[in-house]
Every structure is written in C-alpha cells, then in structure tokens.
Amino acid sequence: MGATWNETPSANRLHIGxxxxxxxxxxxxxxxxxxxxxxxxxxxAGTTTDPVYKAMEIYPMGPCTIMDTAGFDDESTLxxxxxxxxRLAAQKADLAIIVFSAQPVSGESYEEELKWYTWFKERxxxxxxxINKADVADAAPxxxxxxxxxxxxxxxxxxxxxxxxxxxxxxxxxxxxENFGNRLITGxxxxxxDLVLLVMPQDIQAPKGRxxxxxxxxxxxxxxxxxxxxxxxxxxxxxxxxxxxxxxxxIITDSQVFDYVYRNKPAESMLTSFSVLFAAYxxxxxxxxxxxxxxxxxxxxxxxxxxxxxxHAPLSEDIxxxxxxxxxxxxxxxxxxxxxxxxxxxxxxxxxYDLIIQCGACMFNxxxxxxxxxxxxxxxxxxxNYGITIAHLTGILDKIVLTLR
Length: 405
Known about the structure:
Elements: E1 14-20, H1 26-34, E2 52-58, E3 62-68, H2 79-92, E4 95-101, H3 111-122, E5 127-132, H4 140-150, E6 155-156, H5 165-175, E7 195-199, H6 213-224, E8 228-232, H7 237-243, E9 250-253, H8 258-264, E10 270-273, H9 274-282, H10 285-293, E11 303-308, H11 319-332, E12 337-342, E13 355-358, H12 366-378, E14 383-385, H13 386-393
Parallel strand pairs: 1-3, 1-4, 4-5, 5-6, 7-8, 7-9, 9-10, 11-12, 11-13, 13-14
Antiparallel strand pairs: 2-3
Domain Hydrogen maturase F tetramerization: 287-401
Domain Hydrogen maturase F dimerization: 186-283
InterPro entries: FeFe-hyd_GTPase_HydF, GTP-bd, HydF_dimer, HydF_tetramer, P-loop_NTPase, Small_GTP-bd
C-alpha cells in the first residue's frame, strides 16, 4: 500500500536542512529567510526539539521543504534522542545549511560543525555555511577560519535585521543538485500520443475515494507527456483490451497482479509496474536487480528485512506483511525469518540479514532512500524492492521493461 495523494507531495520537494548548535540562531535564520514564523524562537537552549518540516515555494528553486533541527550539541535529558532525529533529517537533506554564531560562547570550538560539514561532503550533499548574528559581532574572523578549514566562503547574515538573506537565496540556488526535479518516473519508455494502460486494483488496501500516490504521480507525468491514458481495475483488463483498436504501447500494473496481467497482455505491449518504476525513480535500480538475484541463493534459514515507508495499520492481504512473505515462504519454507520495519525505522546495523526488500518509497525523498541503500552497500547486504521481488518470484523479471538512470 502506498501513501494517498496530497496537493504537493513533500517527497518530491527539494529538502533543505538547517543544522547547527543549540542557540546558534537556526530557527531565527529560517524565520527571517522565509518571512514566516516557521519555528519557535527563544533565548533558551534546546527550543527546537523534534525537527520542524515546512513545505513552501522558494524562488527560484520552486517547491522546497525546510527542515529546522535540534542542535547537535543538545545535552538535555532527551538530547540524544533529539540528536538522532537531527541525524535522520540529515539523511533526507538535498542541500545542507550549517549555521554558526558570530557571537559564540567563550571557549567554544567549531569541531562539531566541521564534522557535520565533512559528513555532508562525503555524501556529495551540497553545503552552505552561514554566520548568523553578524549585527552584534564581527563575522570576519570566523569567515577567515572557515575559509581556511573548508575552502568555502561563508555568508554573514543577521536574522534580526534580515541583512544578507538575498545573498543566501542566490547561494542556495547555485547549490541545488544538477538536474534536481528532472527525473522521470517513466523515463523514455513512452512519448507523446503513445497509448498507456494503467491497471490499478482497488482492493481493501486502496483508500476509499482516493488513489495511492504512485498511481497519481505516474498518471500526472503521462498526461504531461501528452500520452493517451486508460485506467482500469484488474477485473476490467480483458474488456478494456477488447475495446481498444490497437494494443497499448505500455501497460503499468500494480505489482501484486503482475502474473495475471503478463499472461493476458498483448504480446507487443511492454509491461512494468508502479513499484518497478519507482525502483529507478527513488532508488538504485542496478543494485535492486542484483539484490533480486540473491533471492535464488536463500534457503529456509535465511533472514529477510522488509521495509515499508507508510505507517498505516496492516490490513488483510497487505503486500509487504502478507503477500510477499507468503510468496517467500512458499518457496523457502515456513522457517524463513522475516522482520518488518515501517516509517523511518531502519536499523543502523544490518548484519545478519540476507536480503532487504524496500517498498516503492513514495513517501520518502530520493536522498533518504539512497542513504538506506548506501548503508546496505557499506555492510554488503543485498537490497531490492517490492515490485522487482514479485517479478522475480513470478519468473517474469526478464520480461518486463525497466527505466535505467
């Protein structure tokens, strides 16, 4: 089951994370930059606890999500938990802003900020260095220090007066990852006036009166491409095909009915699924394909982790908690161990797992999904996703079309 549609899915926005020590002025900076009261501001260390996510339009970058985070030096009773939430926000950041105070506490060092700077740079996440409170202290010494340490020019601003905010906007726009927002769900599989058939079963998992997010996003992209689109439920597949004067160029189906649609589709029609398309759109398709091949090496003593993004209450015939486990146990036996995690719960230590199966991740931005993939790669754990797993287990993975990036 995927997330349902909302007006502008946060997962598709540019995620801008604001990081720094407690009382460095992160929240004040965000409020001044956005011109809105996004975050609570107070002269009390640790005012920001859980990260604050604010979706908004920022010219010229377009739809963005601003993430205000707890200070990474939070030493309060709940400090470690707050810092862990900050680390999670960092994994979602497409662009990171590290805020320094031009008026530091006596004897304060900047080692922690520089560690975070290095962490972002190692992951090829662009970083912007901001020196706040430049209205009450000389920012020049700190600018020179940061230039020496990072080879980058920090920007001096004042959240109180608004000075320097236009320079921040320009610097941010220059740091937006190249081609961000230009990824296509359907790649080059179809173009203008191609006929596309969407097979979308509306079973107990489908929310009443709504479509799930991958279906909506795919449909919108096809309409933007000027394709001709027809949508049916599984039971209307054959009547729909009989009505058409020509076979669809592409059929996109829900993965759980892959086998049925494959057996009944026209030979000339290409076939894929929403989940398979999202494997490339949100993840690392070659790594997922390699992970699927590892399924053949598993046995009844293997250990599998199934990770879904949604936090909905599991329903009967849930694809991640019922259908995929049933398919795996049918092949490898009931002793096969399967763990489930949902939302942002994902183990740091993946040792002991023989395979990770990730959902389509429509609720997460690509940066966060890639952080999971990188963790699996670093620990040599195979990883794949729902649609590719089902296609492999039904024996049609080599007969569907993929979109490589």
